[in-house]
Specification:
about 35% strand, about 700 residues, single chain, four-stranded mixed sheet, mainly beta, 7 helices
Length: about 700
């Protein structure tokens, strides 16, 4: 058995070797095997790396059976041992190939891959980047700022490379001023540095890794003196806020400056930062005046943030600043300005009164009452003011009435915007309102003229317009043209024509957009002489509106030939309403005759049956001699009710009667014997005291 290093592990091939050389048959393991081992880098020469035979699946009992040669050292089970010491910092892993060769002919072999990972041992101490750190610090560094940083490295890994820092030798005063971060090595200031109290500090920093190895470095800290007293300022405002119409050279504020230092460190000069309409003028020792240098405009700048800086002449120079907010008060020097010089509004007709039309907006750059804007109408075209109104505060325009596109398509109004300043300022803008069309007008047929209104029954029918088409007309013959107009506009006025009713649908056609009525085929002798065509005219609005046109056509070669047809039509034509009236009247007459026949049959049956018993029990004196009260103009058959009347004893007559109102009365005999309308019937020719020929026979009147 031999070990062949791969390209990655050839450099360490001489350090790791197998003491046991085996000749394994090819049948031992056909596919290549992969073995992994981990060994600490501190292991010495001859240390066991891994039991190869066991990991390959071979036991000591199998070795003789497979005729394996055992190495001269007497080991019964081959093992991988360390031949040279390892260093993880130089090489972390080794890749080997174990090859087994048999003694046959031809020679056959098998391979197994071995990967050895070298684990770390804490064999390296930390190393600082510098043995001595020399640091210079300004005395005015704030607390918490980073003073300097110490840094050490360790070649190990894991916890063996984790370094913690600490002060091993430091004075109590320095410990109060500096703090060391144990993880990062940052040294920060935790106290106030003062050159006058301490100029130099020394300390020793220790760096220790996780395995206990450590290193040390010296730190020398020098404190540098600086100009650590900055000037101080105080401001006394005199005119704040300042009116925007103030004249230049107006004193706005007074500034006082102080510096506790002496000499050049105490000499102070003041400046104003930025390009501002102010300047500083020295007034006396350590005193300055803030003066207006140019005119102010509040609409451009409403307030100024003035930064006054005081600088001493120290090395380095110290400075301090103070901000003064100076407000500018407003005067009414701006008129309202509309967002647009001319506005356009589009409103569909038939709008509701009070509907919003448009909102105009004017802005005034002034403030307060000077910038508060109100609106009103200041004129317009014609009576445009009667169409809209404007809300004073919001500038919203509302419709005062419903617009009609057909009457007014556009109008203009002038809106004035005025502020509440003193004196007031104003401006105007023009608002043009365009009325949009809606499909609220149906097409109107100009030709043929609409049919006359329903005529009075019995009057002579009017002669309607007609068109004469010769029977020799071919297909495409122009019969007439339907002319229609629509008061709307745009698509709402686009008209289309369609033939909806015709006695001969295949004989005529109408142009979709022209309205021309033409013959669709040649006229034949079988076609009726009189033709009635109904065309519908429809617009393209949403929803679409339509109208109908009726065209009468006479198929004849000449006007003289067409006149007889027209006369017959005029004489015999009846409108559908008249026909319906006559039908209803005939039906009513038939119903009345039927009801009369039924009533006569019922009365005849009652007469043959005699008076009912209930009338006999009423007695003979049901009515007085004066008779029942019936109207003098009583007519039979005028009401749908019948009654049985009892009169004098022995004279029971079945009559058709009605309960009358209290009107002048007639004797019962006259009622029973009279004719309708006051005429006497033949049966009443006898005297009032005479009995009829057959007293028992019932008298029936209808």
């Amino acid at each position: 058995m031999e070990v062949r290093p791969t390209a990655q592990g050839r450099a360490a091939a001489g350090r790791v070797a197998l003491l046991a050389v085996l000749l394994l048959p090819v049948c031992c393991r056909e596919p290549p095997e992969r073995l992994r081992y981990a060994i600490p880098e501190e292991r010495g020469r001859g240390s066991l790396v891994g039991p190869l035979a066991r990991d390959l699946g071979l036991s000591p009992a199998n070795l003789p059976a497979r005729k394996l040669r055992i190495s001269p050292d007497g080991m019964k089970q081959p093992e991988l041992v360390l031949e040279k010491s390892l260093d993880r910092e130089k090489q972390r892993n080794h890749n080997l190939i174990l090859t087994a060769v048999d003694g046959g002919d031809p020679v056959r072999s098998g391979t197994a891959q071995i990967k050895i990972n070298v684990t770390d041992a804490n064999d390296n101490a930390p190393v600082f980047t510098k043995e001595v750190y020399n640091v210079q610090l300004l005395e005015n560094l704030p607390e918490g700022s980073l003073a300097f940083q110490v840094k050490a490295t360790d070649s190990d890994e894991g916890t063996n490379a984790e370094i913690t820092y600490s002060f091993s030798d430091i004075s109590n005063r320095a410990r109060q001023l500096f703090t060391l971060d144990s993880r990062t090595g940052d040294v920060k200031i935790k106290g106030s540095l003062d050159y006058e109290e301490g100029k130099h500090y020394e300390a020793t920093v220790e760096g220790k890794d996780g395995g206990g190895l450590s290193a040390h470095a010296k730190v020398h800290i020098d404190i540098l003196d600086v100009n650590d007293n900055a000037p101080t300022l105080s401001v006394l405002p005199i005119l704040n806020p300042t009116p925007e119409d103030s004249v230049p050279s107006t004193v706005v504020a007074v500034i006082n400056v102080r510096d506790r230092d002496s000499g050049d460190n105490g000499a102070v000069s003041c400046t104003i930062d930025g390009d501002l309409p102010f300047r500083l003028e020295p007034s006396s020792e350590n005193t300055y005046k803030l003066i207006l240098a140019s005119a102010l405009d509040r609409e451009k700048v409403a307030a100024y943030n003035i930064t006054i800086t005081a600088t001493d002449q120290g090395r380095p120079a110290l400075l301090s600043s103070m901000a003064l907010v100076l407000e500018v008060s407003d005067v009414n020097d701006n008129a309202p300005v509309f967002e647009e010089a001319a506005y356009s509004a589009y409103v569909a007709e038939n709008n509701a009164a009070g509907a919003p039309v448009l909102r105009v907006l004017a802005r005034d750059a002034d403030a307060g009452a000077n910038g508060r804007v109100s609106y009103w109408l200041a004129g317009g075209s014609g009576d445009a003011a009667a169409y809209v109104s404007v809300e004073a505060r919001s500038g919203a325009l509302y419709a005062q009435r419903s617009f009609d596109y057909e009457q007014c398509r556009e109008f203009a109004v002038v809106v004035r915007a005025q502020d509440d300043g003193e004196p007031a300022r104003s401006s105007t803008a023009t608002v043009r309102v365009f009325v949009l069309d809606r499909n609220d007008n149906a097409p109107r047929v100009l030709w043929p003229a609409a049919e006359a209104e329903e005529r009075v029954p019995g009057s002579a029918p009017a002669l309607e317009p007609f068109e004469v088409v010769p029977r020799s007309a071919e297909a495409g013959y122009l019969v007439a043209k339907v002319v229609a107009v629509d008061a709307d506009a745009g698509r709402n006025a686009w008209l289309s024509y369609e033939l909806v009713q015709a006695a001969e649908p295949a004989l005529f056609r109408v142009g979709l957009h022209s309205g021309e009525v033409r013959t669709a085929r040649a006229v034949s002798e079988r076609d009726a002489a009189k033709q009635r065509l109904v065309a519908v005219v429809k617009d393209h609005g949403q929803p679409a509106l339509s109208a109908t046109a009726t065209l009468h056509v006479v198929l004849a070669e000449s006007l003289q030939e067409a006149l007889p047809e027209l006369s017959e039509r005029a004489a015999g034509a009846e409108s559908p309403a008249e026909l319906q009236f006559y039908l209803v009247l005939a039906l009513a007459l038939l119903s009345a005759l039927f009801l009369l026949s039924v009533a006569l049959a019922v009365l005849a049956r009652l007469r043959r049956a005699g008076p009912p018993a209930v009338l006999r029990c009423l007695g003979a004196q049901r009515f007085s001699v004066a008779g029942a009260a019936f109207p003098a103009d009583f007519y039979e058959g005028t009401l749908p009710y019948s009654y049985n009347l009892c009169v004098a004893p022995g004279r029971a007559v079945t009559e058709a009667a009605w309960l009358p109102p209290p009107l002048p009365s007639l004797p019962a005999e006259e009622l029973l014997d009279g004719e309708p309308g006051g005429k006497r019937s033949p049966s009443s020719r006898a005297g009032a005291g005479e009995r009829p020929a057959n007293p028992d026979a019932p008298q029936v009147k209808v």
